[in-house]
């Protein structure tokens, strides 16, 4: 069972700061230049709680400065703890890449930590040791969940959507626009009956991590540390696993309906960096393994994006990709979807692409990919500009996955290839914090 609960959020006092000036992007998308920019944007910007000002400082810091900063901001009244536990509904209004105006509504809560083996919380990608070690340092020092893990639930009928929308309509939400132009509307849900309804709905449903795998696994490691310390203090001598209901047994999360119109699963494209661009004859060899192709003229990044809407999008759900070496010709490749797809046993299009194209055709195994042989631009025009600037040999464009694809793979206990999908929009840091000692 997925167990959620309300919590008392620590948040900025709007009478002391302008919320738009203190929000920051989630830590793992912040460039070195952006660190400096957000540090200088406001002396209370949330970036000061998540990252050192310089990348070079990360290895040596113990993040004790973060704990001191949190304490100072609370003493000064910049941050205040809400009086009552609540769920927090959030509506995000944004423009999709195709220009559509969309809104995604979800909510923040505390989620009981579960080991992946229980299949209650399911990852869709693997993690790296380095980022987890860094996040564990900051969690130990701050004793605070500083940014929410983003998870998806299945609600194709939108049963929870109405409850969240009613909450936002019934009060006066806190409003702000983040650095990416996404409008944020936040309101607390304190009514016990509404909270209980959400808990009942989610209890039998699995949750899939959309963004924040490193933070989730860091919280599991921190939970194990706290339990071991508690067992030793209890006098057993040996550190042994004990069940408890401490704040470290829960994590700050944001939950959204995977099937809502505003829940965008966008593709992450590939830029081949350390392999030569194939010749026409080499590309034609893909026909032997069932790939069909057509060629299109597309000189500029804008023309590439327009061509893909007509030529690649119709193959969504089947193995398909488009290749662009920057010389004005776009090659679109596709093959028939596996017959087992309707039975839920076939591999996904992204898995076929990774196995047959990245590994098989270009010869780039997992070690090469992790070593930088492939870059992962999120936007078509970004990838097209990079290959035309000579920063890669071939751009490979992909279709997005569907929500049911992600849930099917994770239900089987599998993970997707690295950088398979991008859940948009990201959540900003700074709307809410969850202090463990007062959760």
Please outline what is shown here:
With 439 residues, this protein is of the alpha+beta class.
How many helical elements? Answer: 14
Structural domain count: 2
Radius of gyration, in angstroms, nearest whole number: 23 Å
Give me the oligomer status.
Answer: single chain
Pick out the low-confidence regions. 237-242, 340-345
What share of residues is helical?
25-40%
Dominant shape = globular
Given helix and strand content, the structural type is alpha+beta
- Proportion of residues in extended strands: 15-25%
- Terminal CA distance: 21 Å
Number of distinct beta strands = 21
Architecture overview:
This protein has 439 residues and is α+β, with helices and mostly antiparallel strands. It has two domains: 4-265 and 425-438, no CATH class; 269-397, no CATH class. The protein is 33% helix and 22% strand. The protein is built from 14 helices and 21 strands. It has helices at residues 19-22, 32-41, 47-50, 64-75, 129-142, 159-170, 192-202, 213-233, 280-284, 301-311, 349-361, 366-373, 380-388, 403-411; strands at residues 4-5, 10-12, 79-81, 87-95, 101-112, 121-122, 144-145, 149-153, 174-177, 183-189, 207-211, 250-257, 264-267, 270-272, 292-297, 320-324, 329-334, 374-375, 394-397, 421-424, 434-435. Strands 1, 4, 5, 6, 8, 9, 10, 11 and 12 form a nine-stranded mixed sheet that branches. The chain has a six-stranded antiparallel sheet with strand order 15-17-16-19-14-18. A hairpin with a 5-residue loop joins β4 and β5. The chain is globular and about 70 Å long. The chain starts with a strand and ends with a strand. Residues 237-242 and 340-345 have low confidence and may be disordered.
């Amino acid at each position: 069972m997925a167990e959620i609960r309300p919590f008392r959020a620590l948040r900025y006092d709007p009478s002391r700061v302008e919320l738009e000036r203190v929000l920051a992007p989630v830590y793992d998308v912040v460039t070195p230049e952006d660190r400096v920019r957000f540090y200088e944007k406001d002396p209370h910007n949330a970036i000061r709680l998540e990252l050192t000002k310089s990348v070079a400082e990360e290895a040596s810091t113990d993040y004790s400065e973060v704990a001191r900063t949190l304490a100072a901001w609370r003493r000064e009244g910049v941050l205040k703890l809400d009086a009552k536990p609540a769920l927090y509904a959030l509506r995000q209004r944004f423009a999709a890449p195709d220009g559509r105006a969309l809104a995604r509504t979800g909510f923040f809560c505390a989620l009981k930590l579960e080991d992946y083996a229980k299949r209650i919380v399911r990852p869709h990608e693997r993690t790296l040791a380095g980022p987890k070690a860094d996040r564990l340092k900051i969690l130990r020092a701050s004793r605070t969940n500083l940014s929410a893990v983003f998870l998806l639930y299945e609600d194709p009928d939108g049963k929870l959507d109405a409850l969240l929308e009613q909450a936002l309509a019934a009060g006066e939400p806190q409003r702000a626009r983040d650095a990416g132009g996404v409008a944020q509307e936040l309101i607390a849900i304190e009514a016990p009956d509404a909270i209980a309804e959400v808990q009942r709905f989610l209890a039998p449903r699995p949750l899939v991590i959309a963004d924040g795998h490193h933070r989730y696994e860091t919280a599991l490691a921190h939970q194990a540390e706290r339990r071991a310390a508690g067992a030793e203090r209890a006098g057993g001598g040996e550190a042994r696993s004990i069940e408890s209901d401490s704040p470290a047994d829960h994590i700050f999360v944001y939950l959204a309906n995977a099937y809502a119109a505003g829940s965008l699963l966008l593709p992450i494209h590939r830029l081949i960096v350390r392999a030569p661009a194939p010749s026409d004859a080499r590309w034609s060899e893909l026909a032997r393994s069932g790939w069909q192709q057509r060629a299109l003229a597309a000189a500029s990044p804008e023309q590439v994006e327009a061509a893909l809407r007509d030529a690649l999008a119709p193959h969504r759900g089947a193995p398909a990709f488009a290749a662009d070496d920057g010389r004005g010709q776009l090659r679109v490749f596709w093959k028939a979807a596996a017959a087992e797809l309707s039975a839920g046993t076939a591999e996904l299009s992204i898995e076929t692409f990774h196995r047959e194209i990245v590994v098989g055709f270009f010869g780039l195994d997992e070690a090469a990919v992790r070593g930088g042989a492939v870059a992962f631009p999120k936007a078509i025009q970004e990838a097209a500009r990079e290959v035309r600037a000579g920063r890669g040999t071939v751009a490979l464009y992909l279709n997005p996955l569907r929500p049911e694809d992600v849930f099917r793979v994770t239900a089987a206990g599998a993970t997707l290839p690295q950088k398979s999908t991008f859940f948009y929009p990201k959540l900003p840091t700074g709307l809410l914090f969850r202090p463990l000692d007062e959760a």
